[in-house]
Automatic annotation (TrEMBL):
It catalyses: (2S)-2-hydroxy-3-oxobutyl phosphate + 5-amino-6-(D-ribitylamino)uracil = 6,7-dimethyl-8-(1-D-ribityl)lumazine + phosphate + 2 H2O + H(+). Its EC number is 2.5.1.78. Keywords: Riboflavin biosynthesis, Transferase. 5-amino-6-(D-ribitylamino)uracil binds at residues 31, 65-67, 90-92, 123. Catalyzes the formation of 6,7-dimethyl-8-ribityllumazine by condensation of 5-amino-6-(D-ribitylamino)uracil with 3,4-dihydroxy-2-butanone 4-phosphate. This is the penultimate step in the biosynthesis of riboflavin. GO terms for molecular function: 6,7-dimethyl-8-ribityllumazine synthase activity. This is 6,7-dimethyl-8-ribityllumazine synthase. Pathway: Cofactor biosynthesis; riboflavin biosynthesis; riboflavin from 2-hydroxy-3-oxobutyl phosphate and 5-amino-6-(D-ribitylamino)uracil: step 1/2. InterPro entries: LS, LS/RS, LS/RS_sf. SUPFAM superfamilies: Lumazine synthase. The active site is at 98 (proton donor). GO terms for cellular component: cytosol; riboflavin synthase complex.
Amino acid sequence: MATQLKNLSDFSHTTVPNGTAYKFAIAVAEWNAEITGSLYNGALKTLLAHGVLADNILSIAVPGSFELTSAADILLNKHEELDAVICLGCVIQGDTKHFDFICDAVANGITQLSIKHSKPVIFGVLTTNDLQQAIDRAGGKHGNKGDEAAITALKMAELSAIA
Ligand code: DLZ
């Protein structure tokens, strides 16, 4: 039963688990669709590249990032077989307080949901000051956070399976 972690620095790039046995849902927000579309393509490509079967990936669109929490809740209630849900969105700072409300709501909502269902719900939501920062993180110079969300989902699905 006892397990020993190696030096944590050894884990910074741990092997990504093979996903053949796992089922995922991806919920993607339509707001800032040019960005969320890139996040989605990255997440999908990464899941497939790590062995997840196309038939085991359920994709849905929701109007905005605010709706990601309820969409993930609906998915987890309807599809008990899911190992994780990946939530993808992009909230860009504007002139009003909308940004703060949406970011707080989706971050807290996803956290609560994950605990409620005891399933990984992955926070793949960009929260940026401007469009350029979002472009940089959706396939630009800072990579694609959709890829990272998919990797996180794979690692957490395996953790749930073996813990
Ligand atoms: C209303 C709104 C605004 C102003 N900005 C964004 C945004 O940058 N990113 C995003 O995903 N959604 C935005 N929304 C829409 C909200 O997420 C939500 O769809 C509406 O408030 C309806 O609940």
